[in-house]
Amino acid sequence: MVETVISIRGARFGDEAGIARVHDEAWREAYRGVIPGRELERMITRRGPAWWRRAISGGTRLIVLDFADMVAGYASYGRNRMPSLAYSGEIFELYLAPEYQGGGLGRRMFEAAQRDLAAHGYPTFVVWALAGNDRAVGFYRRLGGRIVRRAPEQFGADTRERVAFGFD
Q1: 56 with 13: CB under 8 angstroms?
Q2: Torsion of CA 124, 128, 132, 137, to 10 degrees
Q3: Which CATH superfamily is domain 6-167 in?
């Protein structure tokens, strides 16, 4: 019998290459055609293993989805960065490698981040998504998020709309 262990745990040193790989693959799949190509490449390139190592060493709230000893997803979160929104916390990023999407693992990561936010004094939170990322918009709607703000975001010379989903 073969058993595959799936766990969600805090990121640790040694995870940075796996997180960078997930970031690269997930962003290419989610944002190709949404974020202009040159800007997308620039954003992906700057988030290599060294960037994630600094995030881990700096104490960023960062969890990973560990699938058979391999990083298959990650989420980062903390205090809401936009005080004008009446939410205490924020999930900054939540991404799964494309081959792990659609099986409920994103929901499990979302719920783990939600529990940790609440445990650290952030019972309400927001998540921002680009309006053109239909998969993310649908995901946050299915989880019960309601759109509480829309704002422009610049990518080089182009502007895209982003939406904030509030969770009480």
Answers
A1: yes
A2: -20
A3: Gcn5-related N-acetyltransferase (GNAT) (3.40.630.30)
Specify whether the CB–CB gap between 119 and 63 falls below 8 A.
no
Please, where are the H alpha helices in the chain?
A: 16-31, 37-45, 49-57, 105-119, 134-142
Total number of residues shown for the chain: 168
Mean pLDDT, all residues of the chain: 96
d(CA 42, CA 139) in angstroms, rounded, equals: 26
> What pLDDT, on a 0 to 100 scale, did the predictor assign at position 38?
94
Strands 89-96 and 125-130, by their bridges, are: parallel
pTM of the model: 0.95
Structure tokens that stand for 152 in this block: 């422009």
Structural contact between residues 47 and 166, judged by C-beta atoms closer than 8 angstroms: no
Position 126 scores a pLDDT of 98
At 92, the amino acid letter reads F
